[in-house]
Specification:
about 425 residues; alpha+beta; 3-stranded mixed sheet; elongated; 4-stranded antiparallel sheet
Length: about 425
């Protein structure tokens, strides 16, 4: 894979540092730590860190199992303001996802791991296709879990409990990684690792082992830069570190219901996720200038043909994209998004009218509604007209307002 600087940490307690490694002299333990116990902790800590690196982690660190801040306060604030939309995940129960002891009552420490996933780009195929965000090209989280399990097994072998969490709602992994010293919070709310950027998947290990913990928080590395804020296609980054999910394309393609009309043109050819705020980020660009990116995995799914999505069965579709987050695990969420993409890039293509015509008669009003928008966007108003008196108000509402016509794309001929 690409060469990523070693940002692993293994601090040893310094003078005035508590046994937990927090560095807070006001909460220092009154019981002295014997040199034998300290040596045992250091040895186990080094074994865990080494196992994680050998397992494939590009960065690894350790923090306490104390309540995760600022995540707890931020999650409650976002929920109260409505900026989290209908997101569940760590928003479902912020008090649980920010307290490692809810998952393991006797937790002492949390190991944070990061795995780099950026690889060389894959050019789009000739056929009209939807773009997939880089993290979803393949099961990067599977690789991350395997690497974390390698470190967790060291802890279990030493007689400790160890639970791996990656891409689930038990742990706010970004806050764990931040407190473990792996990186700083970028203005796009991603964690940025020094000299490596943000193209990482993150996870953690909750354990009752009293490991040596990090005491050094990475300083902010963004400075006055505003690239991610200014380049977001829907202005979803409403302030440094503040993303309004109601505008964020990465969330809107996962959510149930219609994609808001105001953001459909901005969706462009994205079928899942959005990488814009990472692609313009100077630390990411700097890393890519100085690194040789690995070749994409053989099973990388960077582009998916729109024709295929709109003609595939439920079983075929979920077999291919089942690892994506989709509201209610409903394949029609993907078809809805595909119709918007078709409207944006399908004007003038030979199969566009037939696909839209099929979905204008679909039994699901959500899909009929998006087919109407796609027809109007592709200037196929005579097709759309059949739905003007549709029984569904959702479908009829698609005739309100003006839809900007899409520019015809270069003709794509079938093989």
């Amino acid at each position: 894979m690409s060469t990523v600087p070693d940002t692993s940490q293994s601090d040893t307690p310094q003078s005035g540092t508590s046994e937990s490694g927090t560095g807070d002299s006001d909460t220092a333990q009154t019981k002295p730590v014997s040199s034998t116990a300290l040596s045992a902790r250091q040895l186990l800590t080094e074994r865990v860190l080494d196992a994680g690196r050998r397992g494939g982690l590009d960065a690894i660190g350790i923090t306490t199992a104390e309540i995760l801040e600022p995540a707890r306060s931020v999650l409650h604030l976002r929920k109260a303001s409505g900026a989290s939309a209908d997101m569940a995940f760590t928003y479902r129960n912020p008090d649980r996802s920010t307290d490692p002891t809810r998952s393991m009552p006797r937790a002492e420490t949390v190991v944070a791991g990061a795995l780099h996933y950026r690889s060389a780009p894959i050019e789009p195929p000739a056929a009209l296709s939807g773009r997939v965000a880089h993290y979803a090209w393949t099961d990067h989280y599977g690789r991350l879990r395997n690497a974390l399990e390698a470190a967790a097994e060291v802890l279990r072998s030493a007689g400790h409990n160890a639970a791996v969490h990656a891409d689930d709602n038990h742990l706010v992994d970004r806050n764990v990684a931040y407190r473990a010293g792996l990186g700083w919070y970028g203005k796009n709310a991603n964690l940025l690792i020094p000299e490596a950027g943000s193209w990482f998947v993150l996870g953690g290990i909750i354990t009752d082992a009293p490991l040596v913990t990090n005491t050094k928080i990475q300083p902010d590395g963004c400075g006055p830069c505003r690239r991610c804020l200014d380049d977001c296609p829907t202005n979803a980054i409403v302030g440094p570190g503040i993303v309004d999910a109601r505008r964020c394309l990465a969330w809107l393609v996962q959510a149930r219901g219609p994609i808001p009309v105001a953001y459909r043109v901005a969706l462009g050819d994205r079928i899942y996720g959005c990488d814009d705020c990472q692609e313009v980020c100077p630390p990411n660009l700097g890393f890519e200038r100085n690194a040789v990116l690995a070749q994409p995995p053989l099973d990388a799914d960077a582009w998916i043909e729109i024709d295929w999505i709109l003609q595939a069965s439920d079983e075929q579709l979920m077999a291919r994209v089942g690892r994506w987050y989709l509201a209610d695990r409903n394949p029609d969420v993907v078809r809805r998004t595909a119709l918007v993409v078709l409207g944006n890039i399908g004007a003038g293509q030979p199969n566009t009218a037939a696909l839209i015509d099929h979905y204008l008669a679909h039994p699901n009003p959500l899909l009929r509604a998006h087919a109407v928008w796609a027809a109007r966007r592709c200037q196929l108003d005579s097709l759309a007209a059949r739905c003007r008196s549709d029984e569904s108000s959702l479908v009829r509402s698609e005739f309100d307002g003006v839809v900007a016509p899409a520019q015809p794309q270069p003709l794509v001929l079938a093989d």
